[in-house]
Amino acid sequence: MTSYPIVSALLLAVPALFIYHRVTAQRTSATPSPTTEKPEEKPKSIMQPAATDLAPPKDDPFTQEQLKEFDGSDVSKPIYVAIKGTVFDVTRKRDTYGKGGSYNLFAGKDASKALGKSSLKEEDASPDYSDLPNTERKVLDDWHAFFVKRYNIVGKVTDLPAVVANL
Ligand code: HEM
């Protein structure tokens, strides 16, 4: 029937998006040589472009408990995502990080481990990424760099687990 082409297209689109997303997110880790960093090699991305209107970074202290207030459940408050202790204001992507959003898992906390592992599991949403192998630490660093270019930095997490505080 006529619905088959639509179903087939959908079945193909989801994995294709995922692969493209992963390739884009890990672009720098796939090409470790500094000599390969040429602008013309950048593939077109489904990800949002870097922001041009970022404010100077702030250094306000946040405990993990205080961060929870900014998990998107209260629409009158901003949404914060922390990566390796850096707190980013992702409020302008409330659809993505707010309640019911695909990446709400990352909101109101430091979920560095999940970003490094490319995981959306609640159990991986932890600031302790110390058991990740170097390949996944590089993915995490790439995500940190991605956020630095796109979101305002509003502070630092002050009570990270000791095992990562000095990494
Ligand atoms: C089937 C699996 C997946 C698909 C189809 C997918 C698709 C996408 C798409 C389309 C975007 C761009 C969204 C936008 O700009 O609004 C995106 C961004 C993103 N994805 Fe995924 N993704 C998948 C899996 C994952 C996983 C496993 C992670 C875990 C780390 C992840 C983390 C992210 C993050 C952090 C962003 C950046 C959002 C932003 O712009 O702030 N994704 N993904």
Across the major sheet, the strand order is 1-4-3-2
CATH architecture name of the largest domain: Roll
* Average of the residue pLDDT scores: 85
Strand content: 5-15%
Q: CATH topology of the largest domain, which one?
A: Flavocytochrome B2, Chain A, domain 1
Could you list the spans in which at least 5 consecutive residues all have pLDDT below 50?
14-21, 26-34
Give the N-terminus to C-terminus distance in angstroms: 57 Å
CATH class of the largest domain: Alpha Beta
The rounded Rg comes to 17 Å
The CATH superfamily title of the largest domain: Cytochrome b5-like heme/steroid binding domain
Count of separate DSSP helical elements: 7
How are helices and strands ordered from N to C? HHEHEEHHHEH
Per DSSP E runs of 2 or more residues, the count of β-strands stands at 4
Fraction in helix? 25-40%
What's the structural domain tally?
A: 2
Bound molecule types:
protoporphyrin IX containing FE
What does this structure look like?
The protein is an alpha+beta fold. The protein folds into 2 domains: 1-31; 56-167, Flavocytochrome B2, Chain A, domain 1 (Roll), CATH 3.10.120. The protein contains 7 helices and 4 strands. The protein has helices at 3-25, 27-30, 64-67, 94-97, 112-117, 134-150, 162-165, and strands spanning 60-62, 80-83, 86-89, 152-157. The protein has a 4-stranded mixed β-sheet with strand order 1-4-3-2. The chain is globular, with a radius of gyration of 17 Å. The model is unreliable at 14-21 and 26-34 (pLDDT under 50). The chain binds protoporphyrin IX containing FE. Residues 14, 17-18, 21, 46-48, 93, 96, 103, 114-115, 118-120 line the site of protoporphyrin IX containing FE.
